[in-house]
Amino acid sequence: MQAHLLVAALSLAIPALAADSYTLDPTHTFPSFEIRHHGVSTLRGKFNRSQGRALLDAEQGGGRIEVDVDPTSADTGHDGLNRMLLGANFFNTAAHPNIRFVSDRIRYEGGKPVEATGQLTLLGVTRPVTLEIRDFTCTTHFLRRIPLCGADVHTTIRRSDFGMTFGLPTLIGDEVRLAIEVEGFRD
User: Fold this and answer.
1) What is the residue-wise DSSP string for 20-85?
2) pLDDT at site 106
3) pTM of structure
4) Which residue from 28, 100, 171, 178 could staple onto 183, CB 3.0 to 4.6 Å apart?
5) Domain holding 151: CATH number?
6) Mean pLDDT, the chain, whole residue set
7) Residue 35 lies in a domain
């Protein structure tokens, strides 16, 4: 009877081994944002520091993505605006030094991830967010000779949903378009 339990336990563990684990490459992963400014132009910026991991299991239709973004690394190309973004009206980095996304579900098509649904925490507020995963592609890194995957990830959020209301509705828009260039090395 114990041998039967061992075989059952091993058969349950085998699918978990089919999942691929990736560490995001912080030198090639850049969350960026776009938001309306004064209703006349689009302000663009990015975060220069992020880290994360992805566990992808296309065969079982599962996995998990965890990404942490350092809001003090916000960069709009304008030093004064960058300093404003750190303050209480925007990212309030003194009280909230991290932005975090953790997936609940990953949807696959043709063996590739195309959507990740999960929870985004910004300013201490957690809300559901769905990320669209475009152009997921894998190859072998030309120098390191290890598996490398990448994608372009997109979503739109309303900053007011997270309590960031300064400048609404005319000075700064509410809708924020996020685009994340992401690359990760398989562990």
Assistant:
1) EEEEE-TTS-EEEEEEEETTTEEEEEEES-EEEEEEEETTTTEEEEEEEE-GGGEE-S-HHHHHHH
2) 98
3) 0.88
4) 28
5) 2.40.128.110
6) 91
7) yes
